[in-house]
Every structure is written in structure tokens, then in C-alpha cells.
Amino acid sequence: MQITVLRSDHIYRKVAQASATEKVELFRNEMLAPFMKKWQIQQIPFKADEPQGFDVLMLNSMMNRSPEQITEEIEREIALISSDSFWLSCEQAVKNSLQLFIEQGINLPVSDYLFTIQLGNPASPVLMLSEGYSGDGGIPGYIWCTIVPNDYTIARVKAALAHECNHNVRYQFIRWDHTVTLGELIVSEGLAENFATSLYGKQLLGPWVAKTSAETLNKHIKPVLKEKLYVTGLDHITPYLYGDEIAKLQNYEPVDLPYCAGYACGYYLIQYYLQKTGKTIVEATITPANQILNEVKGFWDEETVISC
Q1: Nearest to 83 by CA among 154, 153, 31
Q2: CA distance 301 to 114
Q3: Are 194 and 270 in contact (CB under 8 A)?
Q4: How far is Cα 221 from Cα 84, in angstroms, rounded to an integer?
Q5: DSSP 8-state code for residue 174
Q6: Residue 135 — pLDDT band, cuts 50, 70, 90?
Q7: Cα distance between residue 123 and residue 68, in whole Å
Q8: CA distances from 82 to 15, 90, 234 (A)
Q9: Cβ-contact 283, 203 below 8 angstroms
């Protein structure tokens, strides 16, 4: 297994010192080009044919610092992710997460992994809803986290990386295409967050779960999601998975659900599954969603009250 670290702090400093006309292409080529296969799989153009056209740079700038924002004025942010110990800790989190599967006899089809940490845009409403940190690990072999660096987010980077590594492993075994269901994504997010807390403790439970109360989960979220598990299409899935606030920000129709309702539901659904079946989180990670959902029908019952 080969893990490659893309030291974004080095790239940010180069971009910060570059001229205004050089910043965009320097950032595109050094930060985004190493993830070229990921963009190709996602069918996202690396460079738009027209000015202001959608491409990887526009996508990246929705939540991360754009090249234009990378100046010497954000040196303090860059410094917070610049220590060798920080990057070694991140690399170890990725290595430990992936190694757990290998130790359990799971042969990972992917052997090469690339990861980085990007500076988040403090003006991004979506990123701020998740308290300044997020991640992306759904394309096998590629993992990154986005943070607005401070004591709170830096303390949670390892757990966030573990969450994304879990996605990375799952989608080496589970196919994700246009037929993906809400149920699969609820299961997937539940697996990832349970994996992260199994490694780093429930005190690092992500806000996408921790913000949801037991009453909201039991009385409001579960009854709605129970009837929508087989919905397909991101325009239909997104409001149920992420809730109304994010749905509105992304121009989807709200469905009267709170922030990251699907994530919170998934977390407790997977806890129910693990307790009921005796499976480990490693075993569950590569189990098809339909098998998991068939085992947790009691989770949705009104009398099954989940404590948060």
C-alpha cells in the first residue's frame, strides 16, 4: 500500500507569492491536477472551454479557498497546517484506517492513495454549517479534507480522514452510479461516522450527527426517511440526506428536514445494525446496503426509541 501526501501548505505558499495572473493556473496544476483521475471518473472538466464555465476550479472554490484568495494575508492559516508533525499525524490516520481492513483479511483492490488537506473558505455557508470542516473520499484512491484551521477543526482532522477512508474502502466494493439510492447513502454515512468514532472516540462525533437530538431523530427524521430509502437521483436524495438548509443553498426543493438528517439517521441505524448482528464496523463497511437495511427493519418502528 502506497500513501502519497500532497503537501498543500507548500502549494499555498507558492500561490500566495505568485502574481495575480499566475495564481489560477499554478493552483490548478499543482493542487488539482494530481487528482486528475478523480475528476475524470466524476466527469468534471479539468478546465472549462469558456470563461466562467464549470470545471474543477469552480467546484473547488465552492468550499475551499480560491486561488484569488490565496495571498500573503492568509499566512496565519497556512502556518496552522504547515508543521511536519501535522502532516505525519494525518498520514498516520489514513494509514491506520486502511490498514485495519487489511488486518481483517480484506484485500483492497486499490493500492495507491493520494490525500491532502485544503484550506476552507470561511465565507462558505455549507462549510460553516459543518463547523468549518468537511471531507471527500468517495472516489477510491483519493482522499482529502477541507478545514478552516483552528484548534477545534485541527483536533478533528484525524477523525474526518478516517470517515473519508471508510468511504474510500466501501466504494472499492460497492458500485456507485446514477442508480444509487438514499438508503445506500444513509448507510454509507452511518458506516463512515461509526468507523471514525470507533477509532477516535465519540467526543469527536461530527456535527452532522451531534447536532441532532433524540427527539428530532425519533419523532421527525425516522418517519420521513423510512418512506424514502429507495429514492434515486441527487436532486431527490440531497434534501433528505443533507436537510433543508443545505438543500436551499444548492437550489434543491426543501423537504422539512433539519441539517444532515440522513447522516444522523445513518449513524444510529448502523449502531443498531452492529448491535443486532454482532458484525464489526470493518465487516459492515463492505456489506451492501440492502443487506444492512433488511436487518434493521426494527430500527424504524415507533417503539424503537434511539438515544442520542
Answers
A1: 154
A2: 42
A3: yes
A4: 43
A5: S
A6: very high
A7: 14
A8: 15, 12, 36
A9: no
Residue entry with cell 471527500: 136
| The pTM of the whole model exceeds 0.90 | yes
Inform me whether the pLDDT recorded for 278 exceeds 80.
yes
Residue 126 cell numbers, joined:
455549507
Beta carbons within 10 angstroms of residue 43's beta carbon: 6
**What is the SS3 assignment for 209?**
helix
Query: Which residue's C-alpha cell is 466562467?
Result: 52
Judge whether 7 and 84 are in contact, CB under 8 Å: no
Angle ∠(267,227,251) on CA atoms, nearest 5 = 80
The DSSP letter of residue 70 is -
**Using CA atoms, how far apart are residues 109 and 222, in angstroms rounded to an integer?**
35
Q: How far is CA 158 from the centre of its chain?
A: 13
- What is the CB neighbour count within 10 angstroms for residue 80? 18
The C-alpha cell at 132 is 468549518
C-alpha cell at 306: 434511539
User: Distances in Å between the alpha carbon of 73 and those of 13, 16, 68, 259?
Assistant: 11, 8, 11, 32
The amino acid present at 177, given as its one-letter code, is D
How big is the chain, counted in residues?
A: 308
Give Cα separations from 173 to 99, 107, 167 (angstroms).
16, 10, 10
For residue range 41-83, list pLDDT tens digits in order.
Answer: 999 999 988 877 899 999 999 999 999 999 999 999 999 999 9
Query: CA–CA separation, 66 vs 27, rounded Å?
Result: 9
Cα distance between residue 87 and residue 158, in whole Å: 10
